[in-house]
């Protein structure tokens, strides 16, 4: 491992190299951080007026050489993004096939290979890609804009549903999209979908006749750790399990542990999240254990109000008790 000094005019530690988690950085800073991982370094404070070499070098940046030092970390980062997609093999195959059938995207790929024509000669649909043509490229057969998958028209509604499934709101949903997917006008369509989703009808539920007949469940994050909360509609008693990984298989395993103590409920209510409502593993679990799984209205968390209340109770217990088990007692 190569070792060197980083000279800076800041007296405080540099969060980029010390306290910041890799997942919290922007894609550009992630690529920079990944390039630095192979080095060992120490950060030294130097007054700004004495940083003459750094000032001179910043005015003469290195040119990017195709296939060279600067391109390899970028490809590694894109592959890392692709590897983190839930159900990636099935979803990426679906996106790839849809891209192949989309005439507009096929034309864009052809322009990337053969060169872009004069702007005045392009159709209106292709003009939407003109302003980002320098950011487009093909990686592993998939058309991408930087590190974001370009979604064909036939899959826009499906991807919008997935983006809104976690009911983050307009701002956070847009931030999520900026790191994962793109198509012309995606920001406006996210806002329109969010506005429409807030006007769903209120559906009243019948009170169960016995304990554990009907339960609600939801996932929540507390101090950078994901937890599963399950609460009964009859007793209002919550169960809480900390998850070692946020995957559908881990959620199913945790549910089996709870069901082993209380029995199999008749009805389970959850949102449309990717680890429960939209997970193939949870659908198989539902059939195997023989209960009915009901999902809340898409992008409307209030319709899963019992689980939302359970999340508030669980967070309050975690905040006020070092031992959550004692808090539940």
From TrEMBL:
Protein origin, superkingdom: Eukaryota
Transmembrane region(s): none
Entry EC number(s): 2.7.7.49
Domain Integrase catalytic: residue ranges: 207-329
PANTHER family: INTEGRASE CATALYTIC DOMAIN-CONTAINING PROTEIN, PROTEIN CBG26694
Catalytic EC class: transferase
Protein's name according to its UniProt entry: RNA-directed DNA polymerase
Gene3D superfamilies: 1.10.340.70, Ribonuclease H-like superfamily/Ribonuclease H (3.30.420.10)
